[in-house]
Amino acid sequence: METRPLGRTGLQVSTIGFGGARLDEHPEQAMETVHRALDLGVNFIDTARYYGNSEKHLGEALRGRRSDYILATKAMIEDPDVTRESLETSFSLLEVDRVDLLYAHACDNEARYTYLMRDKGMLHTLEQIRSEGLTRFLGVSFNHFLPYEHGRTGIDRMKALIETDAFDVIQLPMSLIRIERVEDEILPLAAERDLGVVINFPTADGLLTRDIGVFQSILDPYISTPCQGALLALLLYPAVTSVLSGMSTSAIADENCAVGTILAGLSEAERDQLRHKIQDVGIGPCRSCGRCAPYTQGIPVPQIMTFHDSAQRFGIQAAHQRYEGHKVQVMACTDFEGANAVCPEGFDVLAKVKKVFDD
Ligand SMILES: NC(=O)c1ccc[n+]([C@@H]2O[C@H](COP(=O)([O-])OP(=O)(O)OC[C@H]3O[C@@H](n4cnc5c(N)ncnc54)[C@H](OP(=O)(O)O)[C@@H]3O)[C@@H](O)[C@H]2O)c1
User: Which of 234, 245, 263, 328 would you call most buried, defined as having the most Cβ atoms within 10 angstroms of its Cβ?
Assistant: First the structure.
């Protein structure tokens, strides 16, 4: 298993991290799956107070193996007392008295961004928590980069949070379908600041576990399964430290952890070549900024455009199911008044989204 430095923290983490969000899906296999992943070289465990019984499963599975792994959890950040209470509960379930990394959880929207950023706000509380030794490092996590609010896209919020210099690690969604331009806008900034970059949702919420379309032939010589391709592709970016894989069975752990070994066998030249081939496939015209949302009558235009691009350009068949259901609603619309004026790409937004269903 290849490891990488987690930015400036001094920690060395496995390139495949254990994503703990779905341990409740096969609770009877949780213990075996965690042990299997650790035995395969995973040393980076990711969980959160709000992932069902994930912390409880991990606490039980990791008993007696504390020196084998780097532990990250997440807390909601609406209120200092709630955050502290949540952390105490996490410690009790995880059977630890501190963690290596504490993330401010799901700071995607403007409200959470404001809780963090206001004077003496949650950033201040998190820094106090760190100075008390309850966590060694701080991180911030995003599940997505929408909505556009108060003149800011999710990407803008993430960049501003990076620029506070309070966080050692960022966790964010990225996948082969490259909805938002994380690679253009976030990765260079994170590299400049020497931050750990941890990827969640690497399979676009399961979309890429069985079919990676045109990327299969690019990665074919190295991978045995599509899901391995989805994970490997992200690790071809040097700025990415670790990709979290939601492993819920030992068989999935075997399949997905193998990526850390496949990666270790690739030279720098091979990595660059593969990454360029992936990028050369291109990416759809909509940047998923979300500016049009107030004008589109509840129709999720960025998602429709992205999944359509994934199906058309990348040949990912299952992506059809992610937008087909909106056809009737889109075709019934006669006007998205105001949308064209805010689209930075200058689209006729309604015409563009109707065209998706004409193809
Ligand atoms: N910061 C945040 O707020 C946040 C949000 C989301 C996720 N995360 C983190 O990111 C991690 C990864 O996200 P995730 O668990 O949603 O997604 P994932 O790793 O993409 O896995 C999604 C699901 O795909 C299936 N799967 C995985 N590998 C497979 C394989 N080789 N073959 C077939 N199916 C496979 C599994 O479901 P089945 O077992 O049902 O088949 C798995 O639960 C999470 O566990 C969590 O640690 C963080």
Answer: 245
pLDDT value at position 67? 87
* CA 54 to chain CA centroid, nearest Å: 18
Per-residue pLDDT of 319-330, as tens digits, reads 999 999 999 999
- Residue 252 Cβ inside 6 Å of ligand 1? The answer reads yes
Ligand 1 atom nearest to 248, measured from its CA: 39
Is 248 a domain residue?
yes
In a domain, 104, yes or no: yes
pLDDT tens sequence across 27-84: 999 999 999 999 999 999 999 999 999 999 999 999 998 888 999 999 999 899 999 9
Domain of 352 in residue numbering reads as: 293-358
pTM greater than 0.90? yes
User: 299 with 189, same domain?
Assistant: no
354 φψ region: left (φ > 0), alpha (ψ -120 to 50), beta (else)? alpha
Is 51 catalytic? The answer is: yes
Take atom 42 of ligand 1 and give the residue whose Cα is closest. Answer: 246
DSSP annotation of 68 reads: G
Would the CB of 21 count as within 6 Å of ligand 1? yes
Q: Kindly calculate the radius of gyration of the chain based on its CA atoms and give it in whole angstroms.
A: 20
Q: How many domains does the chain contain in total?
A: 2
